[in-house]
Amino acid sequence: MGRVYPPTPPYEVGREKIREFADAVSASDPVHRDLAEARAKGYKDVIAPPTFAIILSQNAGQQLVEDQTFGLDYSRVVHGGQTFRYVRPIVAGDHLVTVMAVEEISSRAGHAFLTTRHEVSTVEGELVVTIWTRLVVRGEG
Amino acid sequence: MQVGTVFPPQTFQVTRADLVRYAGASGDFNPIHWSDRVATSVGLPGVIAHGMLTMALAGQAVACWVGGTAAIVEYSTRFANPVVVPDDDKGTEIVVSGVVKRVGEDGVTQVDITATCNGDKILGAAKALVRA
């Protein structure tokens, strides 16, 4: 509880990755693909759909899976819930660093509940989005 | 937008191919989203959609209702029930509806979202805060 992990290596947000993700989630807004459209809306490049940030959360979450001292049995993990709070949309060209913290652990009815908080900032230190991922670790039997 | 405004429901078809595409785009390769063998071995009825794909599709409905994806400043949900996706060409269907719950003086509007598959609620307490 309260454990904070070291910042992830920077993730470079690419235009084609945004397009690929937008295609996969039926995101039709031209701001995901059309540079002129994105610039007309005041962004310096194409912007990512709201849930794109899950990629950053997943990358940081790998630290939890690999942390032997934490002892998370990933085969029992179910995604319980998800929150994104944006300061601004993620923009192609961003170099993003994620700092993950274990915010809450509780148990109820034989299951464990784990909330991690991920603060995603540019390498320059500008906070872009805060993510909360809620996992349920199902009890044995 | 006024409190009580009901948005037109949006329907999304989800096939196995969509799950594979989402796995590749997101990097979430959990086999419960592509292998019936693994899915049934952990007690699921079959391959299920990524919760994050469902959340993303519901987010697209919101983007469509509020006039653009960039308006969404906060978005949260619980995952209430799995979306089972059969191995055929039709897949399954997700229906997303929404209603304006609150219009704040700070210019932020809360949209409450309901998403169902075969009549079952698949998202719980799903809501988006939008700056219109």
UniProtKB/TrEMBL annotation, chain B:
CDD domains hit by this protein: SAV4209_like
Record SUPFAM superfamilies: Thioesterase/thiol ester dehydrase-isomerase
GO biological processes: fatty acid biosynthetic process
Domain MaoC-like: 10-109
Pfam families named among the record's database cross-references: MaoC_dehydratas
UniProt source species: Dactylosporangium siamense
Protein name per UniProt: MaoC family dehydratase
Gene3D superfamilies, alphabetized: Hotdog Thioesterase (3.10.129.10)
InterPro entries found in the cross-reference section: Fatty_acid_synthase, HotDog_dom_sf, MaoC-like_dom
Assigned protein family: Belongs to the enoyl-CoA hydratase/isomerase family.
GO cellular component: fatty acid synthase complex
Alphabetized GO MF terms: fatty acid synthase activity
